[in-house]
Structures are given as C-alpha cells and as structure tokens.
Amino acid sequence: MAFILGNHTIDEILYAVAQDFDDVILYALDQLSGAQIEVSAESQDITDKKGNVVRTKYRSKAGSFSATNAFLHPAVMNTASGSDITEATDAAPIEMPKIEVIPAGGSLTTVNLVEGTVAVVGLYANGANLTGFTQGATADLATKKFGLANGVVTVPAAGTDAPIQYLIKYTRTVTSGIKLSNLSNKFPNSQRLTLQASYVDPCDDNLRPCYIYIPSFMPDPNMTISFDAENQTVDFNGTVQMDYCAADGDRVLYYIFYPDEDLVTTVTTSGDDSQNAGGGDANQNAGGGDANQNAGGGDANQNAGDGDNAGGGE
Asked: Are 210 and 258 in contact (CB under 8 A)?
C-alpha cells in the first residue's frame, strides 16, 4: 500500500544533530522545544502606469531557524561563539579562578596555585567589605596583610570592628574540566543540522518519526545566557542558508523526510535485563507475580480472578 500522509501534528523534537561538512558530529541536543523554520521571500511588484499591481515577482528566499534549549549546554553556548571547547588534561592543564571563604583567623591550603594571583577581601556581618589587603610574611589586620607560605593563605584573627570572614580569590591550574570562550573576533561556522521529531496522524495513534534536514545552517552569534536559577533556557537560533554547493544542483534551504515507519524507542531500566514491565522476576508477566502467573498475579494456575476460576470462588 502506498504511503499516505495528510493532516498530522508534531509531538516533539527528539534530537538535533549538528555535523561539519565532513559529516563529523559536532554535538547532539535532546532538550529542544519551540523549534520553527521561517522562510521569507523578496518580491518586486510590476505595476501599470497608475500603480496597480499587475504581477508580483519573487526573486529570492531567506530562512531562519529558532528553538529553545531547556537547559544550559556547552555546545549551544559555544557554537554561537564560534570558538572551540577547550578540555583540561594532564598534558594541557587550564588556569581557572577559584573563590573560597574562610573564617577570621583561619587558613586555606591552595592546590596548584598560580603564583601572584591571590587576592583577599574582608567580609563583615552586614555585608560591608574591607579591601586593600596585600601579601605579607604573616597576617595582620592593622597593616592589611594576609600571609602566604607554601601555598597556605592565612588571614587576620577576629576582633573588635574586624571582619568575621575573608573571601580569597586565586588562580590555579586544573587537569579536569572545560573552558568556554567567546572571542570578539571569532564567529560561527556553517554546519549541517538534522532534527528528529515525532509526529502523529490523527487517524493513527502511533508515533512516527520525521526528519528536518538543513544542509547549511549558520548559528546566530547573538545570544543571551541566563544565570538565573529559575530560568536556565538558552536560545538556539540561526540562519537557514541556501545549499549552494549541492551535488544535484538544487539550491535547497531544507528538506523534511517522512519515512514509512513507526517510531521505535529504547527504554533502559535499572532492574534486571530479563524483567518485563511488571518489574518482577525474570520470567514474570506484567502482573509481577510468580513465574507462571497471568496478569491477575495469583497462583500459578489461576486466571485473572483471585480464585480457581474467573468468578473468584473456591
């Protein structure tokens, strides 16, 4: 039977996969929502001598893609900046800042400290600051000195009109972690973007997959990163460019593919691999009872009822 598709609704975007033009996967996202493609066309009106439109000619098309990622994601933040994600390793450590707060009179043992990067500020109970501290042989409030020896920072003791805590900021090297950079002179590169979505035919309850393929996608370098705990979304936008170098010569903006198949999902559970949906023993059915039980979960020879026969009697 021929594949027939009419009215249908998109259920959700399942994955977005970006690749370079050598088909190497750059990143994959699974938290996109609100995705849409907008295409506009540039037109020219042909008019008569009185200005009445006789014909409208369309000259070119321009496309844009927009979506929202539910969480902060290094790939989303970095692809817009046009920079690479730098990974810290034993062979190539990264210098990173660190901030710690210790009580007055306390000490802090730093790890992998970068020399000359320690800075100290005193904190009062009401939030006021005491600034101007410099490194000395020992910690002293009167001269605003903090001590530093063998990587151990010491701060002045508590006292009248003295800070109750000290904030220490320094730079250290790390061998595990990443660094995201946004350079003013670097911009994104074009990518191939493929979206996998699920859709439903109103006359068929089965979820089916469709694929939206943008062969030339330019991420938008304009972005807002929210550091508010109540709003961790980040925009994922870009330009849908014409595939100028398409092998078939088509100057395509995007494709939408509808394969004649149902969506297959893989569910991983924390239970034993041999368990069924009931979560019981390896040979159990959905009811979760003994190995020979039916859905009712009774004795091995029982039917759906609790007794020996369906009526539930003796």
From this structure: yes
Average pLDDT over residues 79-91: 92
Cα–Cα distances in Å, from 224 out to 25, 55, 72, 106, 181?
A: 25, 42, 11, 39, 15
What pLDDT, on the 0 to 100 scale, is given for residue 58?
92
Mean pLDDT of 72-97: 93
Ramachandran region, residue 78 (left: φ > 0; alpha: ψ -120 to 50; beta: rest)? alpha
Are 9-41+58-84+184-257 and 94-178 equal in CATH topology? no
State the pLDDT at residue 6.
84
The whole-number pLDDT of residue 1 equals: 58
Question: Does 183 score more than 50 pLDDT?
Answer: yes
Sorted by sequence, the CB contacts under 8 Å of residue 22 that are 6+ apart come out as: none
CATH class of 94-178: mainly beta
Q: What is the C-alpha separation between 124 and 127, in angstroms, rounded? A: 5
The CATH code of the domain at 9-41+58-84+184-257 is 2.30.110
Tokens of 54: 């006789």
